[in-house]
Design brief:
Number of strands: 8
Helix content: 25-40%
CATH class: Alpha Beta
Bound molecules: D-xylitol-5-phosphate, zinc ion
Structural class: alpha/beta
Largest sheet: 8 strands, parallel
Radius of gyration: 16 Å
Distance between the termini: 15 Å
Length: 216
Amino acid sequence: MIKVAPSILSADFADMNAALKKMEVSGADYIHCDVMDGVFVPNITFGQIMVKALREKTSLPLDVHLMIIQPERFTDEFIEAGADLLVVHAEASMHLCRTLQTIKARGVKAGVALNPHTPLEVLEYVYDYLDLVLLMSVNPGFGGQQFIPSSLEKAARLRESIVKRGLDIDIEMDGGLSAGNAKAAIDAGVTILVAGSAIFGAPDPAGVIARMKNPK
Ligand code: DX5
Ligand code: ZN
């Protein structure tokens, strides 16, 4: 089952409620929340207060993508705010294993995100703590960027190591995805597709989500 997680980074920040309602009736499986601190990435978005506000307005699960340094400082707060899935960047967490353990101990699904240049090898000793791996298919920081093609081979290699280990781990891909390249991502083993501009920039978001889940 392929899932689609629309990124509200591309929604109207002054009218998030409308964006949530639209996604609820468009077949979205998650709401992808891009938290940026202006240090780990060259952009600032929002924090746990926004996640809490979104939580109060929608029943869709919240997929929280932390693009912040030392994410362990805030994991508890994002969990309390209502994150269902909490994703930290491997590059940003000094004690990645402990960070994942802490998230999982609170009954929340834990994920690790990798920048395009970060090798899969950093996952080697944390597989047992993972519910999902988020592969960045653009350099994080902004919506609407161009898909980096080598992400597909990376996803395929990751799927292979997950299968080899007999684990059940989702692969989420984030950046530059649309109905046009969803099939390539799915064929490479991706199970959760994030899309911002392709969904919120379209006149018919439900159609885009449906085509991403079942690409020709
Ligand atoms: C980028 C974010 C993405 C972004 C995707 O740093 O992590 O989630 O919103 O936007 P699109 O789909 O427009 O590339
Ligand atoms: Zn994201």
